Amino acid sequence: VVEHGQPRREVKTTCAYCGVGCSFIAELQGDEVVRMTPDRDGGANEGHSCVKGRFAWGYATHQERMLSPMVRDNITDPWRECSWDEAIDFAATRLRRIQKEHGTGAIGGITSSRCTNEEVYVVQKMVRAAFGNNNVDTCARVCHSPTGYGLSVTLGTSAGTQDFKSVEQADVILVIGANPTDAHPVFASRMKRRLRSGARLIVIDPRRIDLVRSPHVAAAHHLQLRPGTNVAVINALAHVIVTEGLVDEAFIAERCEDESFRRWAEFISDASNSPEAVEAVSGVPAQDLRDAARLYATGGNSAIYYGLGVTEHSQGSSMVMGMANLAMATGNFGREGVGISPLRGQNNVQGSCDMGSFPHEFPGYRHVSDDIVRGAFEQSWGRELLAEPGLRIPNMFSAALDGSFRGLYVQGEDIAQSDPDSHHVLAALRAMDCVIVQDLFVNETAAYAHVFLPGTSFLEKDGTFINAERRINRVRPAMPEKQGLSEWETVCRLSTAMGFPMQYNNAAEIMDEIATLTPTFAGVSFDRLDNGPSLQWPCNDAAPDGTPVMHVGSFVRGKGHFMMTQYVPTEERSNRHFPLLLTTGRILSQYNVGAQTRRTANSSWHDEDLLEIHPADAQMRGVADGDMVSLSSRKGAITVRATITDRVPPGIVYTTFHHPETGANVVTTELSDWATSCPEYKVTAVQVSPSNMP
Ligand code: SF4
Asked: What is the distance between the alpha carbons of residues 114 and 59, in angstroms, rounded to a whole number?
């Protein structure tokens, strides 16, 4: 079709914002996208969309996009534009020099959950084969790493158990530490439809999120706990279920380890886990805990949906295990309407983890010390690989400060803004000799970089994303690459310059290699994805059409394993100097650090971060609605505008982290999950006081 003298065409692709993974039709006139229309055949969205996917794609052509590579000797020097060849050579020379002077382990890379699986895969391959170490980590380290660990040790695999459609069969929906109407709007609509047609709702969250307040949804129970007491609350629910004889004995006998169940049941029956004991810790009335537990155990199909309010705690992994214990004890696995579903934040959190961008795991969650697995990768890649795990992101920062880690490639992540305890992160970046940032824009991290490599937007990418239901969605290029080189090609060139030649003719070849080396992806190819429906992994000989619901008949690990989940209070406590607890989250129109949405029309809907404060706390401090206030913690202080609301209870304040001008992570702490080092973003002791700023 020709309109206004230019051919009109359509390209089917996938939204690059959240883990729902909505399918869209990009409508183009010439090479310009003119509209994004939700795809009626989209497996995850069935024709629905939200304000981000539908309207916030203009950043792809924003005037601030950097299209030329840049280098500089020192971070105080001005940037100098250069050719791709010069930038790659500059980066490789610096990285090789660091390794010569400080050892092979002195450099590493961070992958991005905004990038395609193929782009992530080549980065972890470059680090392992070209850098010669396992110092590769993903931005999922700071969001869903406890999901990976907690679900893996209890059930056997690091992924949610259900497809989105499953919620239509749920009778009880338990939402923990998630705000789906803002963060996962299209799935939230599906959830609300089911709630309107009769399912009962339990919400565990310190804030009165929209689901609780919706006039169309009767929240059966809102357990408004103190931040940091998740594990105590999940243990109390389990205590009621065990001590009142509400466990599913037949399911446990058939599907779970007898020994671990008996030990867990004894532990959970202890009076310290009783609702009365937990009321004192969490602030949730004991009767509410009892009622919620009874409803979850006896209300029919019960499904758990959760977000970063579960994982971003010092006990994030324990909480994930606690949810798995609860669902196993009540037989809520292995069919539609039940299970545990992490609502993944970014578009490809699931995929970036699946692709092996962890310092201890190859693609498909297989440990680097496994000789057989490592041997298969060595044979395919033609390079000897290390059996020892590498550094996690927080360890890279610590090692940078002691001088032993000096070079970092960062793929599409703004660690200077997104990671906690910003002063610590910036000091680590300043201490390095070679920071390479690949991104669309000169972001906050690029201020500390020596090499800037332009990235590609989702409208230029060719590859795949994997959403929160393990659905492998095609991402197709609607526009030509604006900077002339795909991101996977950039990485291949850097790897080659570092002495490990890497070459593919197209992204499909990368997926073919992934499928060859990763059993859960064995049946996946671009050809299949382009000529049939999207697929949910595992997809292989045992499941040729993919796997919408996992753990049917048996768990991936065989028998389900109950884990002890002793509640341990966070070290972050409110005190005389910092009497309030801060928790953070997102708002509907903006996305994470805002690098994309702030460069679209959505920016006018929420042009600054706001601090929610309860009327009683505001009055006590002489703060009026709309005042600028100082928000301080033991880590630092920022200035932010207050909004007075009873969405938060007394003693708790809440803000978002979308705007670098606010810099909310200046105040968050260095504390992290005991198992995975996922930061404790959700609990910070703070003080709020009037600011002199207008
Ligand atoms: Fe994109 Fe998520 Fe919105 Fe869907 S719900 S359009 S994937 S941001």
From this structure: 14
ipTM: 0.99
Phi, psi (rounded to 5 degrees) for 23: -90, 140
CA of 178 to the centre of ligand 1 (A): 15
C-alpha 509, offset from chain centre: 27
Q: Ligand 1: does its nearest atom lie under 6 Å from the Cβ of 56?
A: no
- Torsion, CA 600, CA 605, CA 609, CA 614, rounded to 10: -160
Query: How does pLDDT run across 464-481, given as a tens digit for each residue?
Result: 999 999 999 999 999 887
Residue positions counted in the chain: 694
Q: How many other CB atoms are found less than 10 A from the CB of residue 575?
A: 10
pLDDT tens sequence across 35-65: 999 999 888 898 998 988 888 888 888 888 9
136 in Cβ contact with 527 (< 8 Å): no
How many angstroms separate the CA atoms of 467 and 350, rounded?
Answer: 6
The one-character DSSP state at 220 is E
Residue 44 CB less than 6 A away from ligand 1: no
CB of 185 sitting under 6 A from ligand 1: yes
> Which one of 2.40.40.20, 1.10.1670.10, 1.10.3720.10, 3.20.20.70 gives the CATH number of domain 580-690?
2.40.40.20
- Token output for 269: 């029956």
Span 145-342 CATH architecture:
3-Layer(aba) Sandwich (3.40)
